[in-house]
Amino acid sequence: MLHTPDAYEDDDLDRIPAPKPVHYAEQALLGALLLEPQRLAETGPLDAGHFENHSHAALFTAIRAVPPPDPDDHAKDTTWLNAVLEQARPHAPGLSASYIHALIQFCPQSKHAAAYTRLIRADHARRTLSRHAERLARTATDPTLPNPAASVLAQADALGRLLDDLAGQFAPHPGSLPRTPPLAAIAHPSSEEELDEERLLLATATAYPAEVQQMRWLTAEDFTLPLHAALWQSVSALVHRGDMVDPVTVLGEAQHRGLLTDSLTPKDLMALVSTPAGSPEYWGERILQRALLARAHTVADRITAYTEDPANTPHQLITGSRRALADLNALRTRWNRATAPAPSPATRPQAHAAPAPRAGPLNRPAFTAARALR
């Protein structure tokens, strides 16, 4: 029975209670290389950064740095092993001669060094993908960023480049989709600011319906409140049919869509769409950006769930992550359409004393009646 060596068995440091499979792969590979240094050529592009354990990484670096010994001499003495230990100790003081010899004893088959290498690289890919997903999630919720959409999309691009790089390192195989169960949808409560922005869009779109014609990049799924999403569909339907748009016609469309209830009276609905401020495009972009950030966070959570499932192979991680990222890219396409420079500045009728397009309101109107609709 193989004895599992402990890198810190001579120290007082706490031991890891349940090492992951990659821990044993690292031990097996190092044992193979310490026993037969010439097998270093079988590790290919593996480097110290691929190791999860710091002491193992330092030991691998030392093995690469110390010139390999003559096989016959290596079989007779420990000169080379001592040199490797001295090379590694400044970077990993916990290493000991007993651990070096335990690694050699632990290695099942030194001729399997290439297989151990693949296991190490696969786990490194998993950890790297997890870190990228974590950065994407953190960026999507960072309130200090001056341009959050651009920052999130830059992180998504970095994640995409990583997936392209990993795809060239790991061979595909049948059953390429992750076996991880889908994450349960988590309903996040809408903030007052988010609800106000949606109300302002509905009121301003009702006041300036001509601009709605150019806002096909905004969809009902971008709204946080289902009622607001349905009212946006009502306004959009009137606009795209070429019908007249005002609070009364929006009320009629909402009635046909079954939106009126005991808690939403005709008077409440008309109050909701009768307090315009700013421009529809401005509020629409705000809502779409919020949806983009929320989608990025959801995608990051999905990828994290894939990486935390040890049953997934690297190819499954790559395939599942690419599909998740495609969901974000679909919203990115709409965001790019929304923020692309207009070919010519849009103008409104002179009768409207409104701010310039995409400008925020100077004064926020009261929402006494509308707030009751939350």
Walk me through the structure.
There is one protein chain. The protein is mainly α and 374 residues long. It has 2 domains: 21-108, no CATH class; 123-374, DNAb Helicase, Chain A, CATH 1.10.860.10. Helix content is 56%, strand content 0%. The protein is built from 14 helices and no strands. Helix 1 packs parallel to helix 2, helix 1 crosses helix 5 and helix 2 (54-65) packs across helix 4. It starts with 20 loop residues before the first helix and ends in a 35-residue tail after the last helix.
Main traits of this protein?
disordered C terminus, single chain, mainly alpha, DNAb Helicase, Chain A, 14 helices
Condensed summary:
The protein has helices at residues 21-35, 54-65, 71-76, 79-88, 97-106, 113-140, 148-167, 192-207, 209-212, 226-241, 247-256, 266-272, 280-307, 314-339. It has 374 residues and is mostly helical.
